[in-house]
Design goal:
Among the domains are: 111 residues, no CATH class; 105 residues, Topoisomerase I, Chain A, domain 4; 196 residues, no CATH class; 120 residues, no CATH class; 52 residues. The protein has 36 helices and four strands. Helix 24 links the parallel strand 3 and strand 4. This is Syndetin isoform X2. One of its GO terms (biological process) is endocytic recycling. Keywords: Coiled coil, Protein transport, Transport.
Length: 963
């Protein structure tokens, strides 16, 4: 065993030696091959003599297969030991053939690997040469660098030897001094930073926000440069807190701008926000402040009128609505005024903010980038302000509407309701001037409530007018000779406007429409609410509210004389100067009574009107005030105003034409007949409903009952000429009322701007107002018909023999009887004129009516004659000629009206039979009875012609051409 162990040891050493040689040959063949011989090439592969050829293998393998057979362990690690690896493969038993065979396989693998390596080297030889050249260049650069370093070190040693220790000390001390100076400056800066907070607070208290922000930003910049100091870190945090607090104070000051604009303060705030780079954020914040200010201010105003004792159980969102409902009725208008004034201040502040930004547009920078940014900022501010205007006005409308419609206005008096409408109207005007808003939502809501209120109020006015008419004594109410409706209190706020419109209509022909509109626009802008009340007061103050004049016309000043003067007695209407004026508005049992002052003339020269006329005018004034304050209901108000006049017209006709003795179409004009028929159909409620109608329909509910004349009015007394005074006062008061309505026609057309609605006004004046004077004839004809004994006249004419063949030279007795009655009428008319002013128009109309009645009676008497000879026709002409000649001495009326009516009828007896039909068709003013008598007398001997003409008359009567 010992021998065996020694053998193994020796064999192992041999193998190690062989392994080292083989490792050298296997692991570093390239080293031997790559050993440089010259700069141009490498050594070649070993010769065949150095390596013994192995025995012929049993199997011939290709180089690739041999290369693939190399174990992977040979290529894994650089420090791989192939000998030890191969020795580990030998087992306990040594077989020489296997060892030799394995060694041969390894040699073959070595050859293939060496061959492969050489092939790769030859392939990359050019790149290797280039790399070698680069290495040589690098070596050259390194040599030059080494030379420079050596030269520098040599010069440094020289400088060190030449400089003394004292010079280096001086330089060191100078450097220390510079460092100490920097430290001292930093310490002073830190000290200033510590004291800056107090100074910033002083600036903020003085509202010098721009200076405060500027100093604060400088402190922050300085703190940033000194952040190397530990104490500055805490100071920087404190400055950040100060900046946050300062921004909060800026925000608080910005919120105060919403309620009271201060130009200096706002300029400071904008400059401060500009330094912070938050100009756009400031506008956003300002918008929020305005919205919050509107809500908080409205809530505060309502709370001040509700009182602290009231408890509102509601969420914050419903708190305002609940509080509005708790405002008492007596506090409603004062609270409304305070609410409008408070909201006005906020709106005015925003308006002034917008004006400030228009004046102080952000200046542009010096470069294009700055120009673009500034332009963007300016555009953003402009758009933000415009959107803020619409939003702010929407919030104002919402708060105002919520309060306005939280209370039922139906129980309000009309004057109080007008006052409410005044605030609404003024608020809508402010909105239009503020942002061009028409406040459609507010108009719609107000119109609905106003229509409901006005419908009830108008029904009450019509009922009140009916009661006044039924209790009217038709006595003259003395007023000034120049009295007009504009002197009434109800027209006080409209007087200047109506007068200006009248002047404007006169100047329209002298001015071009374009220049007029431009002047009007410029005037309205110059006199806007924001220019008049920007510094002090509000448009909703009662002093300004009542005295404020509507500026609607160009180049025409609205004079303040439209209001009554306390010092001048000339401005007061005559009827208000009496010893006693008692207006029983709303009380049917109390009627307006006016007693003339002592010492005044018993025959006033002023217009004839009654207290009921004044009542109608007062209602018209109130109606127009409502239409002026709320244009959306103007047309409805004008329609109701027209109904007041129509009812008055119908009442005068119904009261004073019931005793019309003679039915004469010529007394009624076509327009008057149509007007009365229309009023009766549209406005008068039938007194008796048909039995089939159990309930009154909805249209009849809106109508007014038939008026009845007061029992105290006596129109049957011959001594008073059958109510001459009452009839004259009634008709002339109606004419005066029509004249007053005609004077305000331009204003009514101004209120209604749409052509279809203007057409209604034109039709009203054409069909109703213009026919007031036409009522004189039928009313005064009642006096004439009863002042003359027409029945006696007809009886006397019936006794006249119209069949005489010879022409008589003496007129009939009935003519003298009629003339005698007319003389008595003339004397009574003069007597009535001694205590009642009768104008020339009235005097002429009375005589005209008398003549018409007489002429109608003449034709009626002539038509009663069944037979008439030539002499009788001549007698008819003689009687009428005598009547006209005597009548011309009794009256100054020229020419005598309606005489052609009689003359044509008498002359028709002389018309040939073949032309009689044409005459009948052309003269439809005569009744069928008159025409039948005419053909009976004219065609006595021609029955066929009589029958034919009778058929023509019946046909005309059937067609409604004659009566």
């Amino acid at each position: 065993m010992a021998v065996m162990g020694d053998f193994k040891q020796k064999f192992s050493g041999l193998l190690n030696k062989l392994g080292n040689q083989s490792r050298l040959s296997l692991s570093s063949p390239s080293e031997e091959v790559l050993k440089p011989i010259s700069n141009e090439g490498f050594v070649s592969t070993p010769s065949k003599e150095d390596v013994k050829p192995p025995e012929e293998p049993a199997e011939i393998l290709s180089d690739d297969e041999i290369l693939e057979s190399v174990e992977k362990e040979y290529f894994k690690e650089l420090d791989f030991d192939p000998s030890r690896h191969e020795l580990k493969k030998i087992g306990e038993t040594l077989i020489c053939d296997e060892i030799l065979s394995h060694s041969e396989r390894l040699h073959r693998q070595q050859k293939v690997v060496s061959k492969k390596v050489l092939s790769q080297i030859l392939t990359n030889q050019r790149a290797c040469n280039e790399e070698f050249e680069r290495i040589q260049n690098l070596q050259s650069i390194l040599r030059e660098t080494l030379s420079i370093c050596r030269d520098g070190r040599s010069k440094l040693n020289t400088g060190k030897q030449q400089l003394t220790t004292t010079s280096l000390g001086i330089l060191a001390n100078y450097r220390k001094r510079q460092l100490l100076r920097g430290i001292l400056h930093s310490l002073n800066t830190i000290k200033t930073l510590q004291r800056s907070e107090e100074h910033i607070q002083v600036l903020l208290s003085e509202s010098r926000y721009e200076d405060a922000i500027s100093e604060l930003l400088e402190c922050q910049s300085a703190a940033t440069s000194l952040k190397r100091f530990a104490c500055v870190a805490a100071l920087s945090g404190k400055l950040v807190d100060t900046l946050v607090m300062t921004e909060e104070q800026l925000d608080v000051a910005l919120g105060k701008i919403c309620e009271k604009f201060d130009e200096t303060l706002y300029g400071q705030l904008q400059a401060a926000y500009a330094l912070l780079g938050k100009t756009q954020a400031a506008m956003d914040q300002l918008h929020m402040h305005f919205t919050s200010a509107i809500q908080n201010t409205a809530l505060k105003v309502i709370k001040s009128f509700v009182g602290k004792s009231e408890s509102v159980v509601a969420t914050s969102g419903k708190q305002y609505n609940e509080l509005c409902k708790k405002v008492k009725e007596e506090n409603f208008i004062p609270c409304l005024q305070e609410l409008c004034s408070s909201l006005w201040r906020i709106v005015c502040s925003h308006h002034r903010v917008a004006l400030w930004h228009q004046k102080h547009t952000v200046d542009k920078g010096t470069n294009k980038g700055a120009d673009l940014e500034v332009s963007f900022t300016n555009e953003y501010i402009r758009q933000k302000l415009e959107s803020m205007q619409a939003r702010i006005w929407q919030d104002v409308q919402a708060r105002f509407s919520t309060y306005l419609f939280s209370t039922d206005l139906a129980s309000f008096k009309f004057d109080n309701f007008l006052q409410v409408l005044g605030f609404v109207h003024r608020l809508m005007e402010v909105g239009e001037e503020f942002c061009g808003s028409q406040s459609e939502e507010l108009q719609k809501s107000v119109r609905l409530q106003s229509e409901n209120y006005f419908a009830k109020y108008h029904a009450g006015c019509l009922e009140e007018l009916r009661i006044f008419l039924e209790n009217e004594s038709w006595t003259h109410c003395p007023v000034k000779s120049d009295f007009t409706c504009l002197q009434l209190q109800e027209f006080r706020s409209l007087r200047g406007v109506i007068q200006n419109i009248g002047l404007h209509e006169q100047q329209k022909l002298q001015q071009s429409p374009d220049s007029s509109n431009q002047s009007q626009d410029s005037n309205s802008v110059a006199g806007g609410y924001f220019s008049r009340f920007s510094e002090s007061g509000t448009p909703f103050d009662l002093a300004n509210f009542d005295l404020q004049e509507e500026d609607i016309l160009a180049n025409i000043s609205d004079e303040a004389s439209g209001y009554f003067s306390d010092d001048s007695d000339e401005e007061v209407p005559e009827e208000l100067k009496g010893d006693f004026v008692d207006e029983g508005h709303g009380d049917p049992s109390v009627h307006t009574r006016v007693t003339r002052s002592k010492g005044r003339s018993s025959l006033p020269k002023g217009p004839l009107l009654t207290n009921t006329t004044l009542t109608v005018l007062r209602h018209c004034g109130k109606y127009l005030q409502m239409s002026r304050l709320l244009r959306t209901v103007a047309m409805d108000v004008i329609i109701c105003l027209s109904q007041l006049f129509q009812y008055y017209l119908y009442a005068v006709h119904a009261f004073f034409t019931t005793d019309l003795a003679v039915s004469q179409p010529n007394l009624y004009s076509v327009k008057l007949q149509a007007a009365l028929k229309r009023i009766n159909a549209e406005l008068i409620r039938p007194e008796k409903q048909p039995s089939a109608m159990v309930q009154i329909n909805q249209d009849d509910k809106k109508k007014v009952p038939q008026p009845h004349i007061s029992p105290i009015v006596n129109i049957n007394d011959p001594e008073s000429l059958f109510g001459l005074s009452e009839r004259v006062v009634a008709v002339e008061s109606l004419v005066f009322l029509a004249d007053q309505l005609d004077s305000i026609r331009p204003y009514l057309e101004h209120l209604v701007r749409h052509e279809p609605r203007k057409h209604y006004i034109q039709q009203f004046y054409l069909q109703m107002v213009s026919v007031a004077s036409d009522l004189r004839l039928p009313v005064y004809a009642c006096i004439s018909g009863r002042a003359l004994d027409l029945r006696t006249m007809l009886n006397m004419m019936a006794r006249v023999n119209w069949e005489i063949k010879e022409v008589s030279s003496q007129h009939s007795p009935y003519v003298d009887s009629v003339l005698r009655d007319m003389q008595i009428f003339s004397m009574r008319l003069e007597e009535a004129a001694s205590h009642l002013f009768i104008s020339k128009d009235v005097h002429n109309t009375l005589w005209e009516a008398l003549v018409i009645v007489c002429c109608s009676t003449f034709v009626e008497g002539f038509s009663n004659a069944k037979k008439c000879a030539t002499g009788g026709r001549a007698l008819m002409q003689l009687d009428f000629t005598q009547f006209i000649s005597k009548l011309e001495k009794l009256t100054t009326l020229r020419p005598i009206p309606h005489k052609e009516y009689v003359e044509l009828y008498v002359k028709a007896y002389y018309i040939p039979e073949e032309q009689l039909e044409k005459w009948i068709r052309e003269h439809t003013q005569y009744s069928s009875k008159h025409l039948q008598t005419l053909i009976q007398c004219a065609c006595q001997n021609n029955k066929k012609t009589r029958q034919r003409l009778s058929g023509v008359i019946e046909e005309m009567e059937r067609l409604g051409l004659i009566k």
